[in-house]
Amino acid sequence: xxxxxxxxxxxxxxxxLKMAKxxxxxxxxxxxxxxxxxxxxxxxVPAHIQAAAKQAIDDNFSxxxxxxxxxxxxxxISEKFKRxxxxxxxxxxxxxxxxxxxxxxxxxxxxxxxxDEVLVPTPFWVSYKDIITLAGGIPVYIKTTVATDxxxxxxxxxxxxxxxxxLFMFSSPSNPTGVxxxxxxxxxxxxxxxxxxxxxILSDEIYEHIQFxxxxxxxxxxxxxxxxxxxxxxLSKSFAMTGWxxxxxxxxxxxxEACEKIQxxxxxxxxxxMQRAAITAINGDLEPTLKMxxxxxxxxxxxxxxxxxxxxxxxxxxxxxxxxxxxVSHYFGKRxxxxxxxxxxxxxxxxxxxxxxxxxxxxAFGDPNCIRIAFxxxxxxxxxxxxxxxxALSELK
Length: 397
Ligand SMILES: Cc1ncc(COP(=O)(O)O)c(C=O)c1O
Prior knowledge:
The chain has 397 residues and is of the alpha/beta class. The N and C termini lie far apart (50 Å). It has 14 helices and 14 strands. The longest helix is centred in the last third of the chain and has 22 residues, at 287-308. The chain binds pyridoxal-5'-phosphate.
């Protein structure tokens, strides 16, 4: 007899992983599938960080580390917050975790009781919804569309807030849209939060260093919310270290302590070796990151140029991260032979079978009119992929 918990049954299957599985199957049949759903940089970990990991093994960093992270690493992160973001988080306000995903889960599980409302602008990063579900919280979606540049307006936020609102979570730069809130826009949101002291803000800044338009701004800089903002960040995207599993938070002390408590019962903290290497990454220079970012910027420009030529497709110009999130609703209701496109999921399947490109429907991100395309592949492949998409779409009548 198989007894699965209600909890696990309430979680959705990862849409990204599902598409990746089907495209692998098609590729194994010999089809040339271009993968546009890779949520990670296609770069190597910078050499000085690799060397630090090897050194940590030689130096026998093999025992359980402190749950919240090595003191040197928490200090390095505290200094990074000051140096790069001009925000004060003392080392005891920093908790290092097994990726930013665990950091987010720690925060949500620390703050949310069943029935509490969590405000989430759509489109959102897929895991937000399921992490909120895990905690028994109720996601309250604040809808944004391509027409408003996928950004929440202060009036919209004000309207969505109720007595039960406990947490607001968002990412800027955004996965899946690539849009980035300006300082003024963040100030607008902070002004609303000033009137609602019961709400904590989770600011997911994992794409901090992959930005194309201007310097990074954090909502934590505003005095009206500083004492109740948790910054989530990590090394996955900035240093191409997705597999090394290092994420962290800067948080009010009481939240940091709660996260440490949860983590102490679930993982006992993240890998000792990777933490030692993370010290080098955080204290080291950002040259390799900046180079990687320049490559992403060129790819973004190419994506924008090519997608601009496809009729009926609308999108916000990505200012950060490595995704573009076109609204493809123009093609809903059209058909190619026996294949009819009712929604973004149909379109994603159609493009997989017809154009041999693998991408994710926007439904998983809370926007059924869009598809998400990652540009973590070469410019050469981008050009081929977008041409295939253009051709397949032109065959829909
Ligand atoms: C917006 C956002 N937050 C958090 C994460 C999780 O990152 P990590 O690899 O550090 O768990 C991702 C990864 O795709 C992401 O896109």
